[in-house]
Amino acid sequence: MSGGSSAPFSKLHFVLVDDTASFRELLKGSLQKRFQPKTLLDFADGRDALAACLAHPPDLLIADL
After folding, report:
1. 3, 4, 26, 45: least surrounded by Cβ within 10 Å?
2. What is the CATH number of the domain that holds 14?
3. What is the full DSSP assignment across 20-46?
4. 44: domain range?
């Protein structure tokens, strides 16, 4: 997707999981700027992310394994 509107993503819920804070912040900023999702939650810990995902399933999950 190049250039166009981010409108299709404005109703989506993204979750980002990575234990490296600097990478998490960089990716979070890029995703927010490019896609403008309704929500973008970020977690350093997989257990916290899992709890959030079970409570409110995301449309997109990006996780560092």
Report:
1. 3
2. 3.40.50.2300
3. -HHHHHHHHHHHHHHH--SEEEEESSH
4. 9-63
